[in-house]
Amino acid sequence: MATEFHNLQELRHSASLANKVFVQRDYSEGTTCRFQTKFPSELESRIERKLFEDTVKTLNNYYAEAEKIGGQSYLEGCLACSTAYLIFLCMETRYEKVLKKIAKYIQEQNEKIFAPRGLLITDPLERGMRVIEISIYEDRGSSGSSSGSSSVSGSTAR
Amino acid sequence: MPGFSGGGVGGGVGVPASAPPRPFRPSRYVPVSAATTFLVGSTTLFFCFTCPWLSEYLSSVIPIYIAVIFLFTLANFCMATFMDPGVFPRAEEDEDKEDDFRAPLYKTVEIKGIQVRMKWCSTCRFYRPPRCSHCSVCDNCVEDFDHHCPWVNNCIGRRNYRYFFLFLISLTTHIINVFGFGLVYVLHHRQQLDTPHAAVTMAVMCVAGLFFVPVAGLTGFHMVLVARGRTTNEQVTGKFRGGVNPFTNGCSKNISHVLCSSQAPRYMGRWRSPQAVDVQPPFLRPSLTEAQLEAKVLDNGIQNDRHSTRSKSSLDQMESQSADAEPPPPPKPELRYHGLPRADTEESSLLTDAPPTPSMYKYRPAFNSPGRNHTALTHPNKMIRGESLDSPSPTILQSSRQPSYRSEPSSLDGTTVVGGGVGGRRGGVERGEGPGGPSGTAGVMSGGMSGYSLTGRSYTSYPSSLVLSTGGSRSSSLRSAHTAHNPLATLQSEGTTDTSYKSLANQTPRNGSLSYDSLLTPSESPEFESAAHELSPQKPRALFPSATITGQPEVVSPSSPLQGYTSPFLSAQIAQQREGQLLQGSATFSSPHRAYLRAVSPPPPSSSGLPETQHLLQHNQDSSSRAPRNLSSSSSSPGARSLEPPVSPPPRGLSLGKSQTYIGEAGPQHKPRPTGGGIVLGGGGAGGGQQAPQSTSRPVLANHTTSKPGGGVKKVTGVGGTTYEISV
User: Fold this and answer.
1) Mutate which of B261, B270, B476 to disrupt the A interface (most A C-beta within 10 Å)?
2) What is the tens place of the pLDDT at every residue in B376-427?
3) Golgin subfamily A member 7/ERF4 domain spans which residues (chain A) (predicted)?
4) What range defines the domain where residue A60 resides?
5) How many domains does chain A have?
6) Rounded to an integer, what distance in angstroms lies between the CA atom of residue B226 and that of residue B221?
7) Which of B196, B274, B417, B641 would bridge with B586, disulfide CB 3.0–4.6 Å?
8) A 106-125 residues inside an 8 A Cβ radius of B
């Protein structure tokens, strides 16, 4: 039991950042915000390809929606001009609204899909929309066999 | 709640999340103060002195109309002044996985079929996205950089270009209004010109007339730019003079993009929500793919391809090093899942348009992939170090490390020598040149001699050499950047020197040109050119080891400050290091020098005796002259590994002798070189000073070498887009 207790305590902090993968922007269609859907090899063993690609594709769709030039953005611009841009103090722009949606989506993906696999996606907005940063975590475990210790602690934790 | 990003002293830059504080420079505020004074002052005078008469004589709508235009002008002026133009936050440390001296200065992307170059920003530590430029006044990279406007004391970029453009239009309109209605007033008061009202009106008219010409000119200029979808920066630097603009979508779409698109978000000064997601093991893993299963099988020691050797060598590495007293070298920068055919992944990735996904190397200590259970048990660090050997062309390093554990095909032997030798040298450089030099050389020599050179000595002395040597073969894949950073940082001065050390080794194969030449070739001015000219910054870093080892440590520091763009620096380095280059029998970095040498002067035929490393670009003459000779010293050539049987030590000794003769021959030829390098340096120094106006001043050096591979040249693609041609 003492051993279990010890392992449980270790378990709490036994995931540590091992590596980071950066998914770069896809500039093939210009400077509109798109990220490459190419599956990074570092994630080969961590997550299914399809899940990753779906996530990136959804993000791309969100960004395309944010940058869409249409009726809403035009009206926003006219309204802003007519109020000497004071409207920006009260109103949220279309882009900001979509960014909030994206943040929520990323949070949800992290919780449901990535964190259980030891990965975390960072909102690209924090990196200036240049990269999607995926942090890869590993079981820290003891200095011995990492997988062994993690499995032991995992079983005791569960 | 959205609002203006903070203005204040910074002149429009929001709260900098990752920008260093800048000194207060009052001179920067003179133009903007003058502009504000003229604008507000003149208009106020106009309203006080001219408008009362206008409203009663003509109509009261006129002052209202003028006031509306004036307010619109003022609002746009304020937005252009205080709004964040689209500043990129500095990249975090872990994103900068590429070593300063290892990664290329430029990365190419294809935008609508046109090759566009992204330059590495040494201040902000990332490759600048297309249309992004670093403003030297604001010391920030700005998205869709247009120009830095002194009249608003702010950069004009993606976020505030629209306001700047509207400001210009509304200001032109306002000036026309003021001048026009002032003229009406004056014409009606010709007999009362001595009254203060008329005098003031005339003064305001003069100011308006004075500013009309430049403002209207600028407005017209920007109207053309908007219609053509260009930025001021691109227009002024002549990027699209002869070619096609990949960023244009047609006149109407360009205009609507400027005026009607939604306000882009700012990147700086945002609230960072704390990571609320808890990452706890155990982690789910996808089921093993076939590749992984295959790798596991190969891990049992069956050497079929590089992948298996990679994982195996890591195990060997660990075992062989277990007796080492030295601390293990820094783990390889890129952590890869063992057994995965990384080379293939890299290659295929390189062949696509997108740059390969970079991975960070800093968080190595914790990495314990389950596949490496057997290695993880004893020495995780060593395992990681062993991993560092894993690279798309791993064999070079590995076989050199463990002569006693040779179960790999003997054809791999050829690579060992070079790798070990190079590693030793590089390690010497990294560690601080002086003391490292001799030992490194010793390691190189031993490597050259035996072919099975343990480089145990060199290895232990320069653990980083392990990583470095692999890096020699594949420039960007290996990064001992972490450890190398500090010593390198001491070598370099700020800013420009950082960029100068961006090694050019990995150029994307998309260009089709492997060209180590291009490494030696400085970049040309047009940025949207074919990839062939792409490689501008060369690997000055690569030159360092050889320079250092050959006893020319002075080469390292003096050249650093000269670097605005690498080309001049490279030429100088090459000139100085050529001799050192030749001294090393099995130096990976000798090859670039040799390639350069050949390009410049007819290479002595005995040069081919030098064992080639995989990243040697062979020119036609080289390969042709070398091919027959390589047969005798085939093992030394990495390219030969797949073709020729392993060589025993005697041929290596022979090759070493040849290399020495080559040195002797080439010696006298090198003398004139430094002058050429000096000239280049002068040009480079002049050109290197600029930052914001891009690329116009980049010195252009002739591309001496052709990248045409001769017969018997094998292409090897490395990690991070490096492709090497190895003479076979």
Assistant:
1) B261
2) 444 444 443 444 444 444 444 444 444 444 444 444 444 444 333 343 444 3
3) 21-133
4) 16-37+49-139
5) 1
6) 9
7) B417
8) 107, 110-111, 114-120, 125
